[in-house]
Records
---
Amino acid sequence: MALVHCNQNYALAARMLHRLSAVIVMLPLRRRQSSGATDKMEFMNSALSFPFPDLPATGTTTAVAQGVAWLRMPLPFALDHINLWLLKDGENFTAVDTGFGSSETMAAWDTILSGKNLVRSIVTHSHPDHLGLAGWLEEKYGAQMWMSQGDYTVAHLINAQIGGYAVPAMLEFFARHGLDSARLAALDKRGNAYKKGVPEIPGSYRRLFDGQIICVGENEWRVMMGYGHAAEHASLYCEKLGVLIAGDMLLPRISTNVAVQPTNPDDDPLQWFLDATAAYRALPDDTLVLPSHGKPFRGINARVTQLHDHHAERCARLIEACATPKHAAELIPVLFDRDIADAHQVMFAIGEAIAHLNHLMHTNRLRRIIADGILRFETI
């Protein structure tokens, strides 16, 4: 059973990673764009290549590299799918991410794992579409979960609704940034939606570290931690195969959600994201990127450039819009070309608006004004 941690290679790999400054960061979630912006993104994606045009049907797999299979599972959101990965691990298998906690996803796993021995799941981060069925896979198939400590901890805090990770703290935070009572009420009614997607979290786990080498069958995968989308997002890079399992950090057609959290209200996660994605340039440009959403692609440098340009353009919009003081909620249409009512998308949208505003404040392009308990931002 190939469950070797490769401790003998850990120190060397960590030193090499430090020299390369390959600190990959978090990317993040589900921006929907107007037709004009979508057309622009489609044009930009002409710089990328997509070697696997056909999508695997639910309950089936598609081989994308030696010992690496692509699975596509359904999601109950506007972003309607997640990609998972199944790695040949000697005579066994390792899963990378587990899918949303639903009976449909369970049934798909049962079909795929028929006659197979799943020995572990490596979870890139704590969001429900990634962590959702880790507990079920452990209980039914004996798959031990591997995960970063940051995301393991956050998952438990959200599931248990503790302190600043609870819905009331989120509502108070968004209210300070101007979100109206109707959308606050919709978020309140939604409740702890996280627990619906993550019905069970394993009681123990193997901790992932930045630079750690994980042996899966004959291949070595280097953990690349990132920040900005989740607490400690773990991507996996295999130099031998020329493959990066990027998770949510590098997506081909949508930009990752980067949001400020109530527990760290003054953070600058956008800067963490920009710094981290720049480090992807250290990888060969012909690396096959396996994203959590969208199709596998090649063209890391082009995609990093596109994402950086995208966020620079969004920041320029905000600077112009904040010639007179504005709060984050009234700037959602500026960032997304439309207002947003769906509670699930509102949560992402206002979190991302605050992230851009905080970034502009940290880089001395906006000032923050507090009046009547509402935070507003004004161009300097």
Note: The CA atoms of residues 95 and 269 lie 28 Å apart.
---
Amino acid sequence: MLKTFIKSRKEPAQPISIEKYNAELREAEAEYEKGDYVTHEQLLKTIQTW
């Protein structure tokens, strides 16, 4: 599965700066704290409708 995921990329992954990495982490943490995420159970229910 991982090989399929990697092969499906149209462009190779590009390195990012530590500043950008930290900014993305802060953004993700803020989303989590606001409750803006999907639980495992919610994801399983969604997958069943595909």
Note: Residues 18-44 form one domain.
---
Amino acid sequence: MNINLRRVRSQKVGRAILYASFIKHLLLFIVFIVQGWVEMSVMGAMMLVFVSVSIYFENINKRKLTFFLMFAAIISYWAGSEILLGTQYGYHHVIWPLIVVMVLLDVLDGRPLYLCLLVCVGAVIASTFLPEQGLLIAEHTMMPLFNMLYLVVSCLILIPVMIYFHRSNLFVLNKLREQANTDTLTGLYNRRRMLEDINLQQALCERNNGKFSLILADIDFFKKLNDSYGHGAGDAALESLSKLLKNTVRKTDSVSRWGGEEFLILLSGSDAKEAYKIANTLRELIANQPIKYQDRHLHLTLSFGVANYKIGQTIEQTINNADMALYQAKVQGRNRVVLHRPSITVMPEPTKANEKYFASKKEDVEPV
């Protein structure tokens, strides 16, 4: 996605440069005609043809052919202008933007790119040894103007192009960072990003004697949902529940897909009672709001385990406390909220009353 986006942006830049080049050479062609410079008029006409053909190939996405046409035209025009008008004409200033654009547009790579770069560098070096006055015109009052014009044109090409690609790179970088921090299916934070937020909250709590709580939620009978209606239904459930959770919690809170059908919610500044109320609100909202999938309405419930962070605890301990509370919610019948208490120190052992739960727990946490 990001690569395609950058390719589209580079195509826009390439087309803008082509159209600007056409206008510039059209104006120069008119000047050559007015001045009576036949040879330069012929070169200008040829350049217009090259640019027009290049624009056509660019519009049909023949980018490499477009580049080679323009490259050949610019180098040929440089050689002709340097010989006929001399370095005083200043066309060699255009070579530097050509080098930058050639690298940034990502049209070429490998040996073709290195060869073109070598030709450009050779042209710049050769310009320092070529005579200032050309064979066609020794001196003319317009030559300094042309020299200044090409210098300005070079800057007008270089600066916007470099700024544009710098901003484009920042955009792509932000997209990559966003993709690295979010779950592909749900758009929620992934486990890595959530742990970063929790670690930050822990540091703030330790410094300011603050508080935060964690809610671990698990979809009840998720494997049964997949088995009955297919994995498409499971994906739809995860997406719908993710939107509901994200839109219901406060903006200062974080929601993540913790794994499979589990969600972990970070409630900043919330104690155990506040977290319990929020979890119960979410539970009731989900239980009373069926999810539409194709022509069906799926009634889902979630079980919630709530744990409050205590200063001096590790992050792993707090998450484990929420997990133990979630297990209690499952054992007690699902679709309920259990707040972790010091008395809940270990996972419940299977008994006749809850052995069905432990037999189905593996199904509940199986990833989609």
Note: Residues 191-364 form a domain with the Alpha-Beta Plaits fold (CATH 3.30.70.270).
---
Amino acid sequence: MPEQQGSMLTVYFSLSCLFAILGMLPWQPSETMRIEKRTVVLARTYLLTQSLWFVIIFLNMSFSGRLWATISDALIFFSYSVTIFTFHSLAGVNAPRRSWAMVGLALFIAIPVTVMTPGYANKLHMGNLAALILLAENALAIRTFASKRNDVAARTLMLMAFFFVAMFCLRSVFLYIDPSWARWNESYISFLMPLMALAVTFMVLASMAMTAQDQLLHLALRDKLTGLRNRHAVMQDYKSFASSADRHRKAFALVVCDLDFFKSVNDRFGHASGDLVLVRFAGTLQSILRDSDVAARVGGEEFVMLISETEQESLDKLCQRLLDTTRTIDFSDIDPACQLTTSIGATLVDNPGTTFDDAFQQADLRLYAAKRDGRDRAVTH
């Protein structure tokens, strides 16, 4: 056995073990960092298929035969088909019909068409065409994932994907210019394929890590019970609202609302019913707000809203609508006697220098005025 071939056998065997180990690792670091089951299944399938592919390559180099070559082609094309759907899953979307069609076309070209095509160089052309289709679809899938994140790390993965598309395009160009270059194909592939396998694996695992990180950040800024933003998150949002208001010279509003006599709900109907009341009130807040507005739970039964680009009259109408809607929330499944009202304090923020604490204090004073005047009302100025 030539020394170079022996070295490659060692590399392939090592990579097979590496991918097998990665494919069998537990990928749920904690209860708060959950990766969608479909994504995990797809990623495992890719890694274990890659591991099997390196085993087949190992066998093909040790016991050369057309069967081993055909099986290895099928496995490698299948594995890079799986990654297309993995990246779409990581982006939180289903793969488009185009991707399914392109995968079907690539697999059809890679297996039956390539097998039946006469001549080694022609087979390489067919296989290369199939590889380009799959790599291009992978690059587009990663672009979809990157567009969801819009950060440097995701864009770097996208550039890596396009790099390998370029490498296979270069291979095609060389083969068309000089068919005799086919004799160098094995050396080219023996270098490129392990490199690409490691790079794609890095892309998959890095994407999964970024997705888990996003989920953790999302949870850190959310109230666990209601799913609304929490106090820390709304303080960050306030800075964005203030900056936007300064740029557009338009005021925004901070609204504080507190559920009236909420303690009696817990005392009469139990804490589980109290939680249900909070969740339904949170849903009511979200239903009356625009996409550009923010709702947050900042205390037990205390909520804050940030209302973008508003004025006094619009703010008054919004608060009245919230009062009216809250009175009509149905709690008959808890008890027919269970009814809810809320008291509201609001302030219009038209000075970009006003801090969150200043605005919150102003709205909170008005909230207490609403409570003092009999509750179930809003004080906005």
Note: The longest helix spans residues 185-220.
